[in-house]
Amino acid sequence: MTGMTPCPCGSGTAYGACCGPLHDGTPAATAEALMRSRYTAYALGRTDHVFRTWHPRTRPDDVTPDPGVTWTGLEVLATEAGGPEDASGVVEFRARFRTAGAPQVLHERSRFERRGGGWVYVDGDVHG
Ligand SMILES: [Zn+2]
What we know:
The chain has 128 residues and is an alpha+beta fold. It has helices at 20-23, 31-44, 47-52, and strands at 69-81, 88-99, 102-115, 118-127. Strands 1-2-3-4 form a four-stranded antiparallel β-sheet, covered by helices on one side. The longest helix has 14 residues, at 31-44. The structure holds zinc ion (ZN). Residues 7, 9, 11, 18-19, 36, 40 line the site of zinc ion.
């Protein structure tokens, strides 16, 4: 993955101008940007970013992703608040992945909070 590669989050922007800077420590401006960067971190195995952007209150001790899962696409369906002036936000998304060769979909409404100038993931409701 180089900075010129299209970002795995599907934004249509190069990785180096999308989720890449967030992985290198730039605070996310919006909850959606943070959510996209976390999807891309899962896709690229950037476990450090997954850990760092998870609220300490809800973060598991071990955030290592399942090595049998390959993430194949992200679609942001809706957002509520989560902007530069907000303290919290919700992002609803559909993330596609393959496990044991079978295509799967994760449909979740994730909650985010502003923390330390950026955003962190709090928790989410998974839809069937
Ligand atoms: Zn991205």
